[in-house]
């Protein structure tokens, strides 16, 4: 029994090393765009009806906290920028859809 547990553990470690993910990560469903938009709104702390100006202001507030020059990380800054870009893209897509 211990032999099988060691083999399974070794296979998990090899999977993580070779593919960059744990085996159980492959069981999760891929995130959808709507989930990404919700996560971006939560990160910036804004509601669903936020305007372009509100999105930009929330992004500025967040970047003052997570900027690498102020003790933040590059990853946090990239996440803040991605959230802003996604929400602005979503906003412009909904504006374009409303014209039709």
Architecture overview:
- Helix 2 (33-44) crosses helix 4 (74-98).
- The protein is mostly helical.
- The protein folds into two domains: 1-29; 31-100, Helix Hairpins, CATH 1.10.287.
- The chain has helices at 2-19, 33-44, 52-66, 74-98.
- 70% of the residues lie in helices and 0% in strands.
What's the quick description here?
With 100 residues, this protein is mainly α. It is 70% helix and 0% strand. The protein has helices at residues 2-19, 33-44, 52-66, 74-98.
Low-confidence stretches: none
Number of strands: 0
Number of helices: 4
Relevant CATH superfamily of the largest domain? DnaJ domain
Q: Name the shape in a single word.
A: elongated
Instruction: Write the element-wise H/E pattern from the N-terminal end onward.
Output: HHHH
Give the tally of structural domains: 2
Mean pLDDT value: 90
